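Figure S4 source data
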Amino acid sequence: MFIGHYAPAFIAATHRKAPPLAVLMVGTQLIDFGFFSFALMGIEHFRMVPGITASNWLDLYDMPYTHSLLGTCVWAAGFAALVWLFTRRPVAALLAATAVVSHWLIDLLVHRPDLTLAGSPPMLGLGLWNLPLIEKPLELAMAFGALAFYAARTRPKALPLAILAGVLALCQAIDWFGPRTTVVDVGQPITALAAYSVLAALAVWVQSTRAKRAS
């Protein structure tokens, strides 16, 4: 999944003690921020294998520090500690940690068996990427259903919300239908990191225009 990962952020951001939407959106993609940064440094690795799943060619064969459940929990704890330091709100820290862990749980639904509990077998993944007629509608429903819930609860201005929705749709369309290659280079991690960063920046704009209702 890509934009489906943001669903927990949109929902959590409606809580009156939540950290900012952008923080939660970074949280939901934090282990991918970590993975693609580690890929650039040669610490974790991926390759492109035609047909490895029906939805994409990603062979995520080496990611013990980010996409193991143990690794995810470590990232979640660190992120929660950072949020607590800035907000001094335990609920905000808990929501931030939950956002991070949600990424692994959602990945478990769609990945082929390439996730681990602690960096070694058993390999886990329910493989919805091989059922695109199920996975694609599910991803859209999660992302835009949660965004609609956020909009109804917090009433941001229409323009920034529409631009965020449009960029989400564009990113997902590129992910699904863009050109594919078997070549692995720095462009793929940099593109992913840039997309996550742009979406977080748009979330700052959306949050700045909202009129949050009482929970």
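Figure S5 source data
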Amino acid sequence: MLARLLDRRKLTVQELAGRAGLTNVEEVRAVLAGETPGEGLLRCFATALGFHAVDLFILAGLEVPDDMAPLDTAASRWVPYVVMDAVHLPAAGRRELLKLIRGLPQEERYSRFVPKRLAPLAGGPGSWAIRMLQYRNLDWMGMVASSM
């Protein structure tokens, strides 16, 4: 998958290593050869490729670290309502709302986030996309509302 990303972005191994702040190009080559990247390396790749790190963990089939999980899983029930109201705002209003949401104080994590099972989906692009959305605190209804 990394090889496809590099090809799509028209990046060389050396360019990716440079953007990721790596001094050892062999770390990138090892992943291209099939070695499983570590947590730190995936975080560096995410920054270098312009991805959310959680998405690269999902694409790599690795467990997502707790610090990347939603803090308040109960918040997902409010997302569809916010999205349905936000679509009626002008672009400037949506930007202001997003700024407000991002500026809200973060609370302590009270429980471990566990993404819901994706049965009958089992691997592949569909399940990857759904897991990525779950880590953005979107449940099924939130996924529908956010696609409107």
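The chain has two domains: 2-59, 73-146. The chain is about 50% helix and 0% strand.
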